[in-house]
Amino acid sequence: MKFLFLIVFIYLLPQCTGKPLSRDDCHQHTFEEIKREIAGYSDIAKAIINLAVNGNAQNRSYERLANFVDTIGPRLSGSKNLEMAIKYMFRVLQEDGLENVHLEPVKVPHWERGEESAMMLAPRNHSIAILGLGSSIATPPEDSAVSCVLISRKEGRKELQ
Questions:
Q1: What is the band of 107 on the pLDDT scale with cuts at 50, 70, 90?
Q2: Residues 86, 72: contact at Cβ < 8 Å?
């Protein structure tokens, strides 16, 4: 009896995933359909390869990459450098004669590093070096005072928990 229960349990367990057993809106593609779809992109792939090997982009990939990185630099989400990078790529792709080069509006969160400072007030005034994490929430514009605890050993951290 336990064996029968185990067999039924093992059979029914995958059925309890919360997903419908069958869906009418989902079409399973065969390998042949996928192969035909991929083959449909061969002309586009050949055009890209031809542009890189024989066209305007010939022997310029590393030169462009170096120029892009040196000129624009890091591109954080919502930064001016990201805007410059998008405009740069848009311009050079159009200059290369690529088709359907266009920009699309995208909602991107914006974060800028603000001024950061920390000061020990007691037993004496002393400036403390700090580094805020990217996208961290700013403290209010008025001064904030908090109590700190000095922990000199790893064991001290465990005592605070």
A1: confident
A2: no
